[in-house]
């Protein structure tokens, strides 16, 4: 009986993984639609980052968590680690690199919000803070994942 439960769990995990992949494909294929362009540049960056993280095995738990005067763009799980992700998108580098915008003050605000999240959800997993830096627009954009950024 216990073996059947394990096999069933494995089957459901594969189905969920396949559905997530299909959703990512459809989401990317629909980017050309006119009403998709109405999303703010930041929101499109967050969607792109979430899609990238899912493909790398992260499980997105919460988007745009607000607490303690800060917003955490993405809260995710990577294996047993709870990851708080800050997404920074820039169309070019004239205003500096995206990762440079995550200064000490921003890091402190994100840490405070993460403490609230962890205490409310009673999290006992290891915690990490990542930054996803996106430069460019359209097909010319580059995405960089900075693990354990601060």
Strand content: 25-35%
Q: Please tell me the total number of domains.
A: 1
Q: Could you tell me the mean pLDDT? A: 84
Question: Helical region count?
Answer: 3
Described by the principal axes of the CA atoms, the overall outline is globular
Strand order of the largest sheet: 1-2-3-4-5
User: Which CATH architecture would you pick?
Assistant: 3-Layer(aba) Sandwich
CATH topology: Trna Endonuclease, Chain: A, domain 1
The span between the termini is 46 Å
Q: Determine Rg (CA atoms, Å).
A: 17 Å
Helical amount? 40-55%
SSE succession: HHEEEHEE
Main sheet attributes: strand count, strand direction, barrel closure: 5 strands, mixed
Number of beta strands:
5
CATH class: Alpha Beta
* Low-pLDDT regions: none
Structural class: alpha+beta
Quick structural summary:
The chain is an alpha+beta fold and 150 residues long.
Description of the molecule:
A 5-stranded mixed β-sheet has the order 1-2-3-4-5. The chain has helices at 2-29, 41-55, 104-120, and strands at residues 59-67, 70-78, 81-90, 127-135, 142-146. Strand 3, helix 3 and strand 4 (127-135) form a beta-alpha-beta unit. The longest helix is centred in the N-terminal third of the chain and has 28 residues, at 2-29. With 150 residues, the chain is an alpha+beta fold. The protein is built from 3 helices and 5 strands; from the N terminus they run H-H-E-E-E-H-E-E. The protein is 40% helix and 28% strand. 19% of the residues are buried.
Task: Walk me through the topology.
Elements: H1 2-29, H2 41-55, E1 59-67, E2 70-78, E3 81-90, H3 104-120, E4 127-135, E5 142-146
Parallel strand pairs: 3-4
Antiparallel strand pairs: 1-2, 2-3, 4-5
